[in-house]
Design goal:
154 residues; 5 helices; binds flavin-adenine dinucleotide
């Protein structure tokens, strides 16, 4: 059994969407706690996964970039490594990289109206086991369950 912990928000995935979401959460709701669960071991999602020669954006990256961090490179169609570096830089600048839990895949999320709580069942790649992460506002807890309990709920 793991130590109990609550968070206000669980962000799933450290791609461009997840990192952007985390920044907006920080800006819009100061003091809100969140954790980011990323199944893989890297930031960037699509832009880390695809590394074939010539990988690039389809559209202009000025409109693809975050409003809070304008794209300053002169090239409108950006290469994949540049976009990945941009996402990584954003995460580092905002301290989000320290809040990412790599190797944790969300298997399911269950909302309970009676408890006003969302419980996410998480598989941790490195440890090859499962735990349950619970969010509820305004209290903070992230509760872990024995492996058997999490598995039996699937
Ligand atoms: C070559 C190419 C060019 C593109 N060009 C453009 C473009 O010009 N404009 C445009 O708008 N879009 C473009 N796209 C689409 C691009 O995929 C999206 O713009 C964007 O990268 C999606 O970001 P995302 O964070 O939503 O998802 P992803 O980048 O897919 O990231 C999702 C992340 O979540 C993680 N994850 C997924 N499921 C779980 C889970 N259950 N538990 C934990 N972690 C999980 C993944 O490991 C991943 O890291 C392009 C895509 C490609 C491949």
């Amino acid at each position: 059994m793991r130590e109990a912990e609550w968070v206000d928000v669980v962000v799933v995935g450290a791609g461009v969407s997840g990192i952007g979401t985390a920044v907006h959460l920080q800006q819009s709701v100061p003091g809100l706690t969140f954790t980011m669960l990323e199944a893989r071991d890297a930031i960037g999602g699509t832009w880390d996964l695809f590394r074939y020669p010539g990988v690039r954006s389809d559209s202009d990256v000025q409109t693809y970039a975050y409003a809070f961090k304008p794209w300053t490179n002169a090239k409108a169609i950006a290469d994949g490594p540049s976009i990945r570096a941009y996402i990584e830089e954003t995460a580092a600048e905002r301290g989000i990289d320290r809040q990412i839990r790599f190797g944790e895949r969300v298997l399911r999320a269950d909302w309970s109206s009676s408890e006003a709580r969302c419980t996410s069942t998480v598989q941790r790649a490195s440890l090859d086991d499962q735990s349950a992460r619970t969010t509820r506002s305004p209290k903070r807890i992230c509760r872990s369950m024995p492996r058997s309990a999490a598995v039996s709920s699937m």
